[in-house]
Amino acid sequence: MAPFVYCLNASTIRPTPILDKIRIAGEVGYSAIELWHDEIDAYVGAGRPLSDIKKALGDAGLALPTTIYLAGWCDTTGAEHAAALDVCKRRLQTAADLGSVYSIASPAAGKVDVALAARNYRELVDIGLSLGVKPAMEYLGFVEQINTIESALEIMTQSEHPQATIIVDPFHNFRGGGSFASLSKLRGDQIAISHFNDTPASPPRLEQHDHSRVLPGEGHLDLKQWVGLLKQIGYSSWLSLELFNEALWARDPKDVAKRGLETMRAAAEA
Questions:
Q1: pLDDT of res. 270
Q2: What pLDDT score does 2 carry?
Q3: Buried b vs exposed e over 61-73: b needs ≥16 C-beta within 10 Å?
Q4: What DSSP string runs through the chain?
Q5: How far apart are CA 150 and CA 62, in angstroms?
Q6: What is the spatial distance between Cα 235 and Cα 190, in angstroms, rounded to a whole number?
Q7: Average pLDDT score, the chain
Q8: 158 closest CA partner among 111, 221, 114, 124
Q9: Burial (0-12, 13-18, 19+ Cβ within 10 Å), 16
Q10: Nearest-CA neighbor of 100 among 71, 60, 125, 68?
């Protein structure tokens, strides 16, 4: 039995049309796919029904662990916050209509008031739960403050919400200067999903960005340690291949998806 449930993040084969992404993920052997709201919105904005996407997921036999992403909620107040929440609510409703379990709540890019972010996150989780979707905290290695597990966990803890969850990601741990050992500060049930990727040792850490990611095993990260720690804290759910590699985007998407699944299994089941 595999230690994780293998998932494809749609960014990995981004130029491919959304329904083709879903079909390919199912054909290659993934059990789930993560979808991006910009692509969902573009599909519906072209006059096509959201039900097409839900049907495609069902036809492919795929779960939808997350939709990506919720923005503007973290450090805003007043009218700006209300406007951001309107967009978040619409996206959460879309996620619920598609049957998504979580929706990824991305952090602000700069310095934040942690107490404000915690109150706003608690509010966002309550909104999501009222619709049937759980907003999960994301840290991003290239933003100024919320760039490690610890910084996201501080917001989760101060929110005092019993259903606060986090997205973990080896690239973002490396880029933010964090340690894989930080996973031990979490319980398995606090993790909504683990993204999965690798990254080269060069260029230097602070010069790397999303496009720097490579397939598992093709970089320098100790992914065996990552999966070992996930198992140690009791996490055995989704492991999702998330890359933004333009060289891979230029290749046949089915070949990329197939190779990605092979490399994830090699790392996770070694």
A1: 81
A2: 74
A3: ebbbbbbbbbbbb
A4: --SSEEEEEGGGGTTS-HHHHHHHHHHHT-SEEEEEHHHHHHHHHTT--HHHHHHHHHHHT-B--EEEEE-S-SS--HHHHHHHHHHHHHHHHHHHHHT-SEEEEPPPSS---HHHHHHHHHHHHHHHHHHT-EEEEE--TTSSSS-SHHHHHHHHHHHT-TT--EEE-HHHHHHTT--GGGGGGS-GGGEEEEEE-B--S-S-GGG--GGG-B-TTSSS--HHHHHHHHHHTT--SEEEE----HHHHTS-HHHHHHHHHHHHHHHH--
A5: 32
A6: 9
A7: 97
A8: 114
A9: buried
A10: 68
* CA neighbours closer than 13 Å in the CB half-sphere of residue 175: 26
Nearest to 108 by CA among 136, 134, 70, 82: 70
Distance CA 93, CA 255 (A): 33
Give dist(CA 69, CA 223) in Å, integer.
Answer: 25
Q: Is 161 left (phi over 0), alpha (psi -120 to 50) or beta?
A: beta
Task: Tell me which residue of 113, 117, 156, 116 sits closest to 134, measured CA to CA.
Answer: 156
CB 154 within 8 A of CB 112: no
The pLDDT score that the predictor gives to residue 166 is: 98
For residues 68 and 34, the answer to whether their CB atoms sit within 8 Å is yes
Q: 25-47: per-residue pLDDT in tens? A: 999 999 999 999 999 999 999 99
How far apart are alpha carbons 111 and 75 in whole angstroms?
A: 9
Tokens of 262: 């092979």
CA atoms within 13 A on the CB side of 250: 3
